[in-house]
Fold:
Amino acid sequence: MSSEDILRLYASYPFQTDDAYQQGLASLLTGLSTSQSPEDKELFLRRSRVFYFNRVTGNSITLDQAQQAEQTFTTDSHNQGISATSESTGSTSSQNEAQATEEVQSLTFAQLQELIAAGRLDEIPNNKIIPDKLNEEQASLSSAPARKKPWEIAKTSEDNTP
Structure:
């Protein structure tokens, strides 16, 4: 496959309909600061798309190549039909991903209760799985001296009086 074919494949990859990508992105976006500039957010999203694309396809494109592919092939995609996902949704990927972020971050109590009852714990944002076992590491030794009791402190001050 030529590098141009790989870049076309990247530009036409259905990130919006790939469930694994969307779940990973949702978990990443929960930690993303809302005060970031649109350029920083777009760079973050591009990095996530490049990482996922390289991982799934076994290719290794760079961020610069991805940006070039997005600019080159997405403008052509409306004419040639390469990016069907952009045309079918009628919005950009950053808008879809921003909507997914808002949905994940604003769970109501009822939604949270429903996810727990259905056993879909992996869909709860910032849900960490804590192992149900004790720490198997050896306890550390205390290096601080034991604190003196009030009567021990009074006894020492009486001994020091002339």
